[in-house]
Design brief:
Layout lengths: L9 E4 L7 H7 L4 E5 L5 H8 L7 H14 L3 E8 L7 H14 L3 E6 L13 H8 L7 E3 L14 H10 L2 E2 H7 L2 H12 L4 E5 L2 E5 L2
Parallel strand pairs: 1-2, 2-3, 3-4, 4-5
Antiparallel strand pairs: 6-8, 7-8
């Protein structure tokens, strides 16, 4: 409890020790916990995260599941996508299944935006967007570059409802891809209670259950 003050605390961890109950007990004192999970297969995990031999992916996944059950705060899982390693749809589908079992409050997906410790490459924003669409039914926050633009579209009421039912959309998603007419329909659906918004650790999602 001595960790807490007037402001919410957030901690970012690489997840490598989340299987340890002592670590989980410490993290439970934090308001917002963000853990990284870049792969769901052992081969991919070893290639992208280069863990110590004693660290096993399954231990991390099981530790995350336990932490989810034990933790009352906001739980975020972060995915870092790297070209040629975990940028395949098949790998993201495996990760989606694991994340559905973990059930975090939010999933942040992004790519490299600064020089890493070893030579790897980022994926482009179109690829990142494509991979994010894999996570149906999960609240995904995509870390787009500020200058990334897509063509804005006119969505009908039914299309908006179907889109939100498939995957919650962030306010940033709406601003990036919705036309003004589509935003008006979205606002009307919100007023009429057909959809709702949810704030998760500072990111607002539009949702349809």
């Amino acid at each position: 409890n001595s960790l807490k003050g007037d402001k919410k605390l957030l901690i970012l961890s690489n997840s490598s020790t989340i299987y340890d109950k002592k670590i989980r007990d410490v993290l439970k004192k934090i308001d917002i916990v963000k853990l990284s999970l870049d792969c769901a297969s052992e081969k991919c995990f070893k290639k992208i995260d280069r863990p110590l031999k004693s660290i096993k992916l399954n231990d991390i996944i099981e530790g995350m599941k336990k932490f989810r059950r034990e933790f009352d705060g906001e739980f975020i899982v972060e995915i870092l996508v790297v070209e040629g390693i975990n940028d395949k749809i098949e790998e993201m589908l495996l990760l989606k299944d694991v994340l559905k079992e973990i059930s975090p409050d939010r999933i942040d997906i992004g790519t490299i935006d600064r020089p890493p410790a070893y030579r790897v490459k980022p994926v482009d924003m179109d690829k990142l967007k494509e991979l994010s669409e894999v996570f149906e039914g999960l609240p995904v926050n995509v870390a787009y570059k500020k200058d990334y633009k897509v063509s804005k579209k006119d969505f009908s009421k039914d299309e908006i409802l179907a889109l939100l039912k498939r995957r919650p959309q962030t306010k940033s998603d709406i601003e990036r891809q919705f036309s003004d007419r589509s935003k008006e329909i979205l606002d009307r659906l919100l007023r009429e209670g057909e959809i709702y918004t949810q704030n998760v650790a500072g990111v607002e999602f539009y949702r349809k259950d």
